[in-house]
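Work package 3, deliverable 3.1, input record:
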Amino acid sequence: MDVAMTSTTDTVCPSCGGAVSEADLFCEACGAELKPGTAPTSPALDTDTEPTVEIGAVPGQEAAGAGPCRSCGGTVGADGYCETCGTKAAKPRDHFEEQPAPWVAGVCDRGIRHSRNEDAMAIAADAEPGSRALLVVCDGVSSSLDSDVASLAAARAAREVLEAGHAQGLGTDSSRASAIAARLKAAADAASDAVLDSTSPDSPNPASCTFVAAVLENGMLVAGSVGDSRAYWFPDAAEPVGLTVDDSWAAELIATGVSREEAESGPHAHAITRWLGKDAPDHTPRTTTLQVSGPGWLLVCSDGLWNYCSEAAPLAELVRQTAADKGGEPLATASALVDWANAQGGQDNITVALARI
Amino acid sequence: MADFTASVYQNEFLPDGGTDVHAIVTVNCTGAGAAGQSGSGDAGEIIIVDTSGSMGRDGVQAAAYAAQTALDQILDGVWFAVISGNDRAQLAFPPSAEPVMVKMDPYTRQAAKDAVSRFYADGGTAMGTWLRLASRVFSTVPSLTQKHAILLTDGENQHETPEALTQTIEAVTGQFQCDTRGVGVAWQVDEVRRIAQALLGTVDIIPAPDQLAAEFSKLIQNAMGRGVAQADLRVWAPQGAEVLFVRQVAPTVEDLTSRRTSINPLTGSYPTGSWGDESRDYHVAIRLAAKAVGQEQLAARVQLVLGNDTVAQGLVKALWSADEALTTRINPEVAHYTGQTELAQAIQDGLAAKAVGDTATATTKLGRAVQLAAQTGNEEATTRLRKVVEIDDQDTGTVRLKRTVEKADEMALDTASTKTTRVRK
């Protein structure tokens, strides 16, 4: 996200007392790291609301940061930089992967041009292919404080709510859909609470993030979002469908008849009109329900991916082609899509979560 | 045990396509202890005194008195010798036909003072022979880890070619450290400065012989306060990077770039000599291959190393950013020392031009020096410049050369040109 919601506030460096901006990662005067180790399990989080899952501790996840330099393969020094090429070693938060079941996987990556990864992802699935999956993506607003901490807390809090819920309503399709939509709303509430808990109440620039979640349960697909992270359904034998509508300046322009291309390339293309956070106007997700009638790909992603391919049809083609190249393996496909976005410039953090249904 | 710390001052933000990273690394040493008492080896001190004919009877007497004062300051247990030099070098103490040193104690101190009192002025000047003898004398004591000399001269190096002196300097570089002093105004600043810079020492003018004793006393006190025998600055830069320069910028400007010895392909070592309780600033400039905006990398690891032990490390970073507010910031320390380095060069260039009668260049360079001294708050330099030029406007660097200038003032400006002031924080 590149949304300047509020201006940055000047503070002082804890090391030398020099003036620093909130956006600074290191002190201008003394070089002290101002926000050391914004790891996923940040101590800034309220432990009551923080999931105990640690990146690197979950099966199917890879812990970045250990081992050789990602850039040249050299040895990473004790100071966190490669001893050959000087590249800063990746923090685990910069790139992580999840694959709760062989048919569901996601990759969350810092991209190239951002100095930290404010995207987050939390996914879960039952082992039986096509049975039950839930995918949550949150994209931290980069102009707010600690949004990397907030987004991860939000995604995980939402997953926890979605995992726990099994209410089926009265058993009819419409009743089941309402029950799942209600769970999505509860998940958004939990995510919102997690965001609020991740920054101090008197923060001048409280953390905020987007929210998108998709739940597949017994052939019914329900997706809901706040902000501009998206869910898509790409059936193998039917037209691709965008499941979410962005809460964004660009989406409002499109609604008035401006072309998507024009709206999404304008100066306010990335300004969002709804989000999760202390100063959020409203965080009720707008939900869409769909009956899955055949095989296909469910994609939940941040704008780091769709920036480079926004329309459903070409994005579906990209996903299908990439999946074909990777033998239909969800993790390899998600990883390849992240690589593709980085190859396009990696202007933003990139999250790709996929379920093969 | 000495305690070292390193701090880095830089703007690590580079614009898109930016390649050059500048940083000031401040290395601070505390608890250095006294020379030869740190347990890591012995300290040696040689006093080299010019006894050429030009010194005259009064000059030699003043020099002998200064040497005696210096002997009083050498700590007991420190190995020492005294060399008297004219167109050749003689070991004045210990009295021996072969190079030799002895340990300081009350008896040797008195014997050395007696020997020094028998100095007489005679012959010419060939400083290279003095340095070679000092090197040979030091080499007779294998346990020495800290070797320091003070050299006093009063005249030009007339009995030796400049090439011979250059060869000697190269031969003895790294063998010992040497502070040099010129008494009177008949000596050549450039010549003596060359010796001091190569031998990691200082250079200064002592205008009158009666100031010799105080200066010698101070020099030896400083040397005796350097309990860390020898330290090196190591600079690591990433593969593909170029180390543009490594300079000491405080307390004096000394370019170390050409003093590099390779530790490995990515790491160079630069000699810094012995350390007392003090702080020195180094300006390191690295050229990197530009990376994409948002990328961060290490531009240099700057370490102070004793033997093979790294005792302090500073990290110089590079972070490419599209934010002009960050990338256009000028780091005050880097700016200050860039100005001070240019100031030293402007003074030396200006005086050199003045010496050959190039008034236009001298006026421009010294004018620039006046401007830089004012901008960087170097009041000492301003005071010295005032004795050589009339300042019309220091902000624009508008000056006129003075018609009559005391030779000693001009030489003092020259010798002090590399002295820097610290950044006012």
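The interface with chain B takes residues 21, 23-26, 28-31, 72, 77, 79, 81-88, 111-115, 346 of chain A (CB under 8 Å).
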